[in-house]
Amino acid sequence: MGGELKKDKTLQVPPASTELTLRPIGVVRSELKLSPGRDHDQPTKPKERITEIRAQHRKLQKLVSELIIDPAFEELLEGIEEFSHILVLYWPHLLPEENRKIRKVHPMRRMDLPEVGVFATRSQARPNPVLISTVRLLARRGNILEVQALDALDGSLIVDIKPYMEMTPEADQPRFPDWLRKLRKDLTE
Amino acid sequence: MGGELKKDKTLQVPPASTELTLRPIGVVRSELKLSPGRDHDQPTKPKERITEIRAQHRKLQKLVSELIIDPAFEELLEGIEEFSHILVLYWPHLLPEENRKIRKVHPMRRMDLPEVGVFATRSQARPNPVLISTVRLLARRGNILEVQALDALDGSLIVDIKPYMEMTPEADQPRFPDWLRKLRKDLTE
């Protein structure tokens, strides 16, 4: 907790008008679809929501999805099959544009948990909705990757594939907030 | 290794003309800069390159950088300080546009390692150069995050901040290619 941080809050940030352009490299094929007729923004009672999250979680563990990569990029996948797990970066194509302006959320839409800033959550509603899932790579056939437990909806746009390298601080005593411990406890109990 | 994968390689992928637009939410302030006068695309002899990577790695472990988040997004950081580690998604602002067309690379520019597709590496040269680093969060002061061991160059454009949740398959026997084991072994020996 050094005291070297600059206090000037206006330190130059890039102008908000700077645009960075992504082009999809592929698309997700999955059984996961938005349930029609269900208003996903409608708050659910905490108990019902916990039951719902648990059911989704159980279903997700077994779910197998396909990543259809643009055949023009097939060569870029060479060697990916030597990894057991990959990171899928994808764009939630059904996210309403105005949801990119949401500032705080209840994690996993659980109204019994405190609201936190979206950067402190994995919510899909965020200024730049590039979502990340780490999944098991089951098979590669040319430009198609078969993966397990991907939480992306059918039709999600894939923007990048990276190998899972465990380069990161797994061993380094990570610390999590109470709401996350509660979310996990409620998954299994 | 199920046999259910479709063999039709032309399965609809989104048209390559689809554009997804990101706007930077902040900028990296770091001591890491491109060494002037050094041609980074110049291949180095394997032994020299190993020494170079080791020195960079040692320096990086101690490096403290600042993430200057646009003050307009300060509220979105609320609660982030309860996490010990975060994912920084950033755009390498110095990457030449033509490097987005690179298809295969020697990992870490080590010519003694086999060339693999860029999606099988963490190379910054990739069609959509959204890079991810998992770093320790040392402190937050308003819109400024102080982080440890971030490998982003000074001036890199931040596109998202996510909490590190260890939701992923750390415990699930990950498997890595030989070249990655070699890279790591050479870091310390």
Task: Annotate the secondary structure layout.
2 copies of one chain form a homodimer.
Chain A: E1 20-22, E2 26-29, H1 46-62, E3 64-69, E4 85-91, E5 104-105, E6 116-117, E7 131-141, E8 144-148, E9 157-163, H2 178-188
Antiparallel strand pairs in A: 2-3, 2-9, 3-8, 4-7, 4-9, 5-6, 7-8
The gist of it:
The first copy, chain A, is α+β, with helices and mostly antiparallel strands. Chain A is built from two helices and nine strands; from the N terminus they run ββαβββββββα.
Description:
The structure is a homodimer of 189-residue chains. The first copy, chain A, is α+β, with helices and mostly antiparallel strands and 189 residues long. Helix content of chain A is 15%, strand content 25%. Chain A contains 2 helices and 9 strands; from the N terminus they run ββαβββββββα. In chain A, the strands form 2 sheets. Chain A has a 6-stranded antiparallel barrel. In chain A, strands 5-6 form a two-stranded antiparallel ribbon. Mean pLDDT of chain A is 85; it is low at 1-9.
